Amino acid sequence: MQREILAPVVALVAWTLVMLGWMMAMRMPAMRAAGIDMGKLTGSKGSDADKVLPPQAQWKAHNYNHLHEQPTLFYAISITLAVLDKGHGIALWLAWAYVILRIAHSLVQATFNKVSTRFALFVLSTAALAALTVCAGLALAMDAATPGPIVTTAAAYPH
């Protein structure tokens, strides 16, 4: 198995946990400042906080949510490539490009949050993911086209 491609997978999971910590570090004080008592909250959802918390505190939460959306496809494709022994070369470069672009997207969204910059990073990361998916598709097609060993009737039905 090509384990090299698992490094960017682990890196993006680690980054997601960094964003979780950053979100908590910003959101909890903002909630206290807004007079929100977590012990009294029932049935609310994270997006309800958009109405009462400063945008800068919510940007981290929004990004944390984004890291649970499209990156799930990245994880699936990367693991597929690892299983197919194709997690090296261009696929590995594309995987690292995807992770670096997603981290850049996070940093933009969590700090100054300029939508045009975020969108450009999103489009570039999506292109890297699409190319990675093409790599996986080609690997599957080539694997399916590779003839397996010829099994004779005698070998197929031992006496």
Give an overview in words:
By secondary structure, the chain is mainly alpha-helical. It is 69% helix and 0% strand. The chain has 6 helices and no strands. It has helices at 6-33, 55-66, 71-83, 89-110, 115-145, 153-156. The two termini are 35 Å apart. 26% of the residues are buried. The mean pLDDT is 92.
Query: What is the number of helices?
Result: 6
Order of helices and strands: HHHHHH
The biggest sheet amounts to:
none
Residue stretches low in confidence (pLDDT < 50, at least 5 long) are none
Q: Helix proportion of residues, in percent?
A: 55-70%
Gyration radius (Cα, Å) is 22 Å
How much is the average pLDDT? 92
**So what's the overall shape?**
elongated
Content-based structural category: mainly alpha
Proportion of β residues?
under 5%
Q: Distance between the terminal alpha carbons, to the nearest Å?
A: 35 Å
Secondary structure: number of strands = 0
